């Protein structure tokens, strides 16, 4: 699961110029025409260096989000109540790892090794979805994540699946299919609590209250603050604007929450009957930036856990590694 | 030192919380094998993705759960990515179908036209 | 002891083994040595928990036992019948792999016999699980043989994990004479001694390829007690954790 929006960085101006000097203008025209015709770009194709750089960044951060995303929900694997919930949760967290695997492979076709991507995650150089820097405090949190964050991720991923890079689209096709299972199991567990005992309802309401702001952050800052995306939209790297995706999410899911008699912690949340757009209070965007830059409640723990996993798995990987062998990238 | 994780699994781990860098070395995630999936007997094996593995035996073991834990499957192939030979994508023009080569195509042979012409001519003679 | 009591006793032990082993293995989900293995190991954890669920359902539906969720998540520690091997914390991956190897071969031998059981629900389940268990042993064999031939450190880790696991694994075959005699006579299963001999043969074949030395049975003390309700210090905390949410309100639906 992943949220878009803030993932594209502004290229270093000087570096960009130099890279663009090497981009053959004729090939660029051909490349852009291919995308305009709705054709996919494949790993061996010529592509502008900026397209490659932004795609690596996008897919890599998506992959990191999957393996880091496995941690907040993993928090409840050993405590899930009953066989059905226990099995579904393990299977779901397993899928997130599987998605990470597919996405790292897709990014590798662009020339960055899996090891290099993992190192950039561990060093903090490369980011992941901000929402996973919050703790899953109760069982109800798992249901809110499974239902609403997966739903938000689907909005983003369905859009990205129509993008221009073949390997990323193919990975997303499978991922979206599995996410629909996640959403369903999350929704089911969420409804069980929402329609359950008063204590269960209170539990899920409390989780909603705590997760609402991170969910509003999920799609990234408002469009008016991210003006550098025209090129990326033309190249079909970025497929939908942050505000559009947020609106699409609110439109589909707020009524489902209200239907259950639950509330959301925003008095201004309502649909404008004229424009059809949702109105809401701006979430705290300074907090958003602070959390991205390491200041969230769980940033450190998430990376410490990943470091533990890499360090404790190292002997297994090293034992079977063949240093003489040249490693290759996936072909497609 | 005890960490304060809410995850009991994590709480049991001895996390190194000192912030020392951890680096994974190139090649540590092994090599890449392409995976081909056969959905049912009689069907082609189709490419579905790849796995990182130290050798073909483990590649197959891994492929089974990564690519067949949900989807219907009766068999899998794995092959080292390095062993796959393909054309350059810019040579796609070699594959362009020349519309003139109608002799390769059923539509290039107008049998009915000839039969009808023949029937018409014999009919006209009568 | 009646026939059904004897069957219930055996099924409870099998199911508790599978549940606790699956639970332990699921602790690796998201934390494994490499993503591909993480996924494979997690699938097998799910399979184990699934096997336990299937057995608890037989207990419930055919033998008048308690509803599976309540039985699995809410019993007191003394009422569990799992062996000590599965209770042990995961430790490092070497321990988890060797435990998986020893445990899954024991499962494979047991379930193969049960395909011919005269207790039909069990024979049916045995036939259904066959393929899953085959993958589990294939996975374990690949890892054991490869890691043992992958340099000194790796070999030494596997040998010392085997030394720790072997006496614990013998506890899988802890005899329960009264029930066993009855079950063997009724052709419901083959008896622990028979299963153990076959297990030793099978694992020996792989261990010799791997170059690992199995401690001699006489030199170790089998970790018995689990089948009678005596457990290691690790089971109670595991059960507290597993039942934590369920116990918030055992009458609620989760």
Give an overview of the whole structure:
The complex is a heterotrimer of chains A (332), B (126) and C (254). Chain A is mostly helical and 332 residues long. Chain A has one domain: Ferritin, CATH 1.20.1260.10. Chain A has helices at 13-22, 25-36, 49-74, 83-108, 114-122, 139-160, 166-194, 198-217, 230-234, 242-259, 285-295, 299-319, and strands spanning 270-271, 278-279. In chain A, strand 1 and strand 2 form a beta hairpin. The longest helix of chain A has 29 residues, at 166-194. Chain B is an alpha+beta fold and 126 residues long. Chain B has a domain at 31-99: Ubiquitin-like (UB roll), CATH 3.10.20. Chain B has a 3-stranded antiparallel beta sheet with strand order 2-1-3, covered by helices on one side. In chain B, strand 1 and strand 2 (45-53) form a beta hairpin. The model of chain B has no long low-confidence stretch (mean pLDDT 92). Chain C has one domain (3-248): Up-down Bundle (Ferritin), CATH 1.20.1260.10. Chain C is built from 11 helices and no strands. In chain C, 52% of the residues are buried. The mean pLDDT of chain C is 97. At the A-B interface, helix 4, helix 5, helix 7 and helix 12 of A face helix 1, strand 1 and strand 2 of B.
SSE diagram, text form:
The complex is a heterotrimer of chains A (332), B (126) and C (254).
Chain A: H1 13-22, H2 25-36, H3 49-74, H4 83-108, H5 114-122, H6 139-160, H7 166-194, H8 198-217, H9 230-234, H10 242-259, E1 270-271, E2 278-279, H11 285-295, H12 299-319
Antiparallel strand pairs in A: 1-2
Helix pairs in contact in A: 3-4, 4-7, 6-7, 6-8, 6-10, 7-8
Chain B: H1 8-11, E1 31-38, E2 45-53, H2 56-68, E3 75-80, H3 111-125
Antiparallel strand pairs in B: 1-2, 1-3
Chain C: H1 3-26, H2 35-63, H3 68-74, H4 84-87, H5 93-114, H6 120-148, H7 152-170, H8 177-185, H9 192-210, H10 235-242, H11 244-248
InterPro entries (chain A): Aromatic_CoA_ox/epox, Ferritin-like, Ferritin-like_SF, PaaA, PaaA_PaaC
Enzyme class (chain A): oxidoreductase
Keywords (chain A): Oxidoreductase
Gyration radius of chain B, rounded: 30 Å
* Helix-strand makeup class of chain A: mainly alpha
- The CATH topology of chain A corresponds to Ferritin
What is the CATH level 1 assignment of chain A?
Mainly Alpha
């Amino acid at each position: 699961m992943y949220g878009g929006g803030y993932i594209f960085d502004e290229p270093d101006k000087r570096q960009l110029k130099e890279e663009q000097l090497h981009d053959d203008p004729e090939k660029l025209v051909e490349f852009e025409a291919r995308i305009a015709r709705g054709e996919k770009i494949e790993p061996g194709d010529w592509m502008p260096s900026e397209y490659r750089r932004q795609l690596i960044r996008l897919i890599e951060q998506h992959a990191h989000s999957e393996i880091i995303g496995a941690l907040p929900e993993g928090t409840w694997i050993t405590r899930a109540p009953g066989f059905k919930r226990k099995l579904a949760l393990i299977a779901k967290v397993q899928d997130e790892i599987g998605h990470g695997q597919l996405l790292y492979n897709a990014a590798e076709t662009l020339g960055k090794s899996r090891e290099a991507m993992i190192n950039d995650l561990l060093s903090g150089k490369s980011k992941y979805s901000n929402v996973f820097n919050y703790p899953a405090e109760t069982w109800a949190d798992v249901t809110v994540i499974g239902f609403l964050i997966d739903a938000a991720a689907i909005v983003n991923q369905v859009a990205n699946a129509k993008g221009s890079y073949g390997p990323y689209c193919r990975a997303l096709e499978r991922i979206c299919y599995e996410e629909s299972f996640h959403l369903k199991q999350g929704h089911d567990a969420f409804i069980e609590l929402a329609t359950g005992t008063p204590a269960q309802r209170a539990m899920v309401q409390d989780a909603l209250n705590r997760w609402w702001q991170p969910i509003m952050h999920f799609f990234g800052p408002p469009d008016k603050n991210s003006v550098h995306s025209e090129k990326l939209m033309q190249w079909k790297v970025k497929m939908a604007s942050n505000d559009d995706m947020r609106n699409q999410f609110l439109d589909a899911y707020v009524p489902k929450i209200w239907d259950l008699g639950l509330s959301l912690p925003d008095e201004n949340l309502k649909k404008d009957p004229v424009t059809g757009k949702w109105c809401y209070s701006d979430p705290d965007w300074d907090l958003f930036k602070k959390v991205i830059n390491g200041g969230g409640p769980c940033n450190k723990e998430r990376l410490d856990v990943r470091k533990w996993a890499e360090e404790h798995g190292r002997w297994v990987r090293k034992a079977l590694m063949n240093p003489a062998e040249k490693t290759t990238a996936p072909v497609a | 030192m005890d960490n304060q994780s809410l995850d009991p699994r994590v709480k049991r781990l001895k996390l190194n919380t000192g912030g020392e860098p951890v680096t994974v070395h190139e090649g540590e995630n092994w090599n890449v094998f392409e995976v081909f999936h056969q959905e049912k007997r009689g069907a082609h094996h189709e490419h579905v993705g790849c796995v990182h593995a130290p050798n073909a035996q483990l590649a197959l073991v891994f492929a089974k759960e990564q690519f067949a834990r949900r989807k219907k499957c009766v068999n899998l192939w794995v092959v080292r990515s390095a062993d796959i030979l393909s054309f350059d994508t810019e040579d796609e023009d070699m594959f362009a179908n020349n519309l003139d080569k109608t002799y390769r195509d059923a539509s290039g042979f107008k049998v009915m036209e000839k039969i009808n012409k023949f029937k018409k001519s014999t009919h006209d003679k009568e | 002891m009646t026939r059904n009591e004897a069957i219930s006793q055996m099924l409870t032990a099998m199911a508790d083994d599978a549940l606790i082993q699956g639970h332990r293995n699921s602790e690796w989900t998201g934390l494994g040595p490499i993503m591909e293995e993480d996924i494979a190991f997690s699938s097998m954890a799910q399979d184990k928990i699934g096997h336990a669920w299937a057995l608890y359902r037989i207990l419930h539906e055919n033998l008048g036992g308690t509803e599976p969720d309540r039985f699995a998540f809410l019993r007191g520690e003394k009422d569990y019948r799992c062996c000590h091997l599965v209770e042990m914390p995961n430790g490092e991956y070497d321990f988890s792999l060797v435990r998986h190897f020893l445990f899954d071969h024991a499962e494979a031998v047991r379930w193969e016999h049960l395909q011919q059981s005269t207790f039909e629900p069990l024979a049916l389940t045995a036939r259904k699980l066959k393929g899953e268990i085959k993958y589990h042993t294939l996975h374990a064999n690949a890892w054991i043989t490869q890691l043992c031939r992958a340099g000194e450190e790796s070999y030494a880790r596997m040998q010392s994990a085997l030394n720790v696991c072997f006496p614990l694994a013998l506890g899988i075959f802890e005899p329960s004479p009264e029930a066993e005699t009855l079950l063997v006579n009724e052709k419901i299963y083959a008896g622990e001694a028979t299963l153990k001999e076959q297990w030793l043969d099978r694992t020996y074949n792989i261990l010799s390829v791997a170059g690992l030395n199995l401690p001699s049975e006489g030199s170790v003390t089998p970790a018995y007690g689990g089948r009678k309700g005596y457990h290691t210090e690790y089971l109670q905390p595991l059960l507290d954790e597993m039942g934590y949410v369920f116990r918030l309100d055992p009458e609620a639906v989760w």
